[in-house]
Amino acid sequence: MDVMGDMANLFETGRFAQPSDQDEAADEAQEAADEAAEEVRRRLAAEAGDVEAMSVLGAMLLRRGDFDGAESHLRAATAAGDRAAANNLGVLLHQRGYADEAAGWWRIAAVAGSAPAAHALGRHFRERGDEPAAEYWLRQAAEQGHVLGAYALADLLEHRGDEAGARRWMRAAAERGHREAAYRLARTLDRNAGHRRDGRDEGDTEAADEAEQWYRQAAARGHRRAALHLGTILEKRGELKEAGRWYLTSAKDGEARAACALGFLLRDAGDTESAAVWWLRAAQDGDGNAANALGALHAERGETQTAERWYRAAMDAGDDNGAYNLGLLCADQGRTTQAEQWYRRAAYAGHREASNALAILLLRSGDETGAEPWFSKAAEAGSVDAAFNLGILHAGRGEERAALRWYERAASAGHTEAALQVGMARLRDGDEREAERFLRCAAGGGSAEAAYRLASVLDARRPPAPEHELGEPAHEKSECEEWYERAASQGHRRAQVRVGMMAAARGDVVEAARWYREAAEGGSRNGAFNLGLLLAREGSEPEAVVWWRRAADAGHGRAALRLALVCARRGELAEGQRWADLAVSLGPREVGERAARLRDALRQELSA
Length: 608
Fold this sequence. Notes:
The protein is an all-alpha fold. Helices cover 79% and strands 0% of the residues. 43% of the residues are buried.
């Protein structure tokens, strides 16, 4: 059996018959002819006294805009008791500006059971501000299954704060295909759920899932904002391909925010040129976020004038980020005065990061008094960096309690360095458990210093390592070693020395030498000294001397003493005396005492 391709492929290859313009014109002509023939039949029947024909003919003429021709037929049908004609007569009179007379006919039709008339009458009363009457008639329409009546009733109840009633009738309208009702129902469910993807209960999950279903229904019926929200949900969930399709649908329908979001999606996928096309479209439609994105794109390319133009466009669109970004642009170019002006503009508009940036700018210029209020304003608005900066400011003045308060605030929001400062403060106060909690937060956030200090706290608690039955140390890596290694791998010199010492203690000379060398090359005098000790034990004294010399030059007393001993053994008495003098001055005390005795002995030897 032959298998045909799908319709899309046949259509694209020309094998699927496509309607021509002539065919479409012929169809339109046929429809017009059919409509004209129907009108003639209805007119003849109406002249013969057929009430239904009068009503239908009046409705046809009303849709066409022939009010004069429609009115006579509608009045005749209404007089004969046709409720549809009474409703349409009300519509005609309302369009002519006779609202009160229209309401009278709508009432007649509504009392006779016309749901459209009840809806129209309810809308009339709401426009007049008579909400009880509006609710009565809209409810009559809604309960008869009238979609527009259900939607209008839901809108009225929502306005009055009746959330349960509003949701019930909004759902009824949505289920009957009203796309705006579907969108508004989704928004209500969305707000209630809050889209809390973490830490929410089952009810939140169900509400969010239902919201997504209604967004889908509204978007499928052409609601562009529903398509935008659906795209946002899918993007957060990581379903980027489908999100892009809905953003594209919404953007093509003229939703600037969707065009902007599509631009960011394309940029993240590496297609910067296509992203710029959609950002341009959104920015031209007044989207400030898209204008900022274009500004940033041109700034990255070094096209500062174009970037500045788009940042200004963002400001004109009411986006305060435009002024903030202009400030950043000017600051990068060294135009401090202009940067301050733009930061101030954004800060006065409530932009918290601009407030923080302005404070930093003032602080660098020596205006600490002017900087502090802006730090405070940014911190109170939720800027974590500003809270941390306030901590630094107070610490610099010796106001430890105030500094700690701001550090704690920043730390509670996840600021790594602030958590480190709080942990160190708790260690100074002797609150080791609380210190550990903050140090873990900072270390987990990537702070090498916090990892080292946490390891030190854990190391101090560690019991002496048990010995194996045969006298060999049984080594199992502890948590403190893991933190030392994490800090060491991040370049922390003291941690590198400590990891080297642990490796040496378990007999891993190669590993110890590697960490000592890395620390020494990074400027650690302890690392250089320990590397020298390791090399000397392994029989490489000449190389050990090189590292001891580096350590001694950096102020390491024990390294200076070792050099003095090496020189004394080699008979280099003057050089040995020089290193012994240095060891005495560097200390610590026991090293100084040994170095002094060695120096005196060398001096006697030289004078003998």
